[in-house]
C-alpha cells in the first residue's frame, strides 16, 4: 500500500529471487473446460468467476452468452490454458465462482433501508488470492457490508481465497463491476464518499481532519502499482499510512486492516457521541 521511496505500492516485502512465481492451477472441481461444457455452464444459473479463451479462438455462442451474463472473456495464449488442465480444453476454460455475486445497487438499497451508513471496500486489481482472502476476513470483522472488485484483473475467488478468509466470504456481499471508474461515480451519486488509500496523498491517516465517518467507500490498490490514476483523479479524498521504519511498504492486506480499523475507531466515536 504505502511506499515512500518507490512509486510502486502494496508490494510484498520479501527479497527478490530469480525464482518465478508458482503457476496458478485451479482445482478440478473449480473449473469447466471444453466448448460445449462452457456453453452449457453459461446457460445455467451457475455464476462464473473467470472465463479464459485462446486468443486465436472465435466462438460467437460463448462470446454472446458471456456478454449477456456480464462475464469478461480474458484472451490468453493456449499455453496458459494448458497449465490449467492437460485434458482437451478446446481453447476455453471457465472457473466457477465460489461466491454468489450481488448487484451493487441492491446492496446500497438494502443498507439504507436498514438505516445503516454504507461502509464499502473497493479493491483495484488485487491479484493475489491469499491477499484477497485475508482482506475479506478483515473486512467482515470490521463491519464492511460489501467488497467491490473489477471484472478483469482481480484475484480468482477460489477455494484458496475461501480458506484464507476463514469463511468470511460466506458472510459478506461481493460485487463484481466491469468498470471501477463508473462504479466510483455511481457511489458518489448515491451520496457515498470515496476515499483512496495511497502513498501519493499529502494527508496522514491520523490527522484530525481525516474523516472516515458517514457513508464511505475505501479503495485499496494493486500489489504492484497501487490505485489506478484514473480512479485517483475522481475520488473525493485520499489518505496515506505513515511509515516510520526503514521498510518502504506494507503488504496490502495489512494496510487494509490499518485503514479499516481507523475507520471503525472514528465511527465508534461518532456513535458514542450520538448516544
From TrEMBL:
Q: Methyltransferase: is it a keyword of this entry?
A: yes
Task: Provide a GO biological process annotation.
Answer: methylation
Which InterPro entries does the record cross-reference, listed alphabetically? Alpha/beta_knot_MTases, Ribosomal_eL30-like_sf, rRNA_MeTrfase_TrmH, SpoU_MeTrfase, SpoU_subst-bd, tRNA_m1G_MTases_N
Protein name (Swiss-Prot/TrEMBL): 23S rRNA (Guanosine(2251)-2'-O)-methyltransferase RlmB
* GO cellular component term of the entry, any: cytosol
The keyword Transferase appears for this protein: yes
The species is Spirosoma arboris
Domain annotation RNA 2-O ribose methyltransferase substrate binding: ranges: 31-102
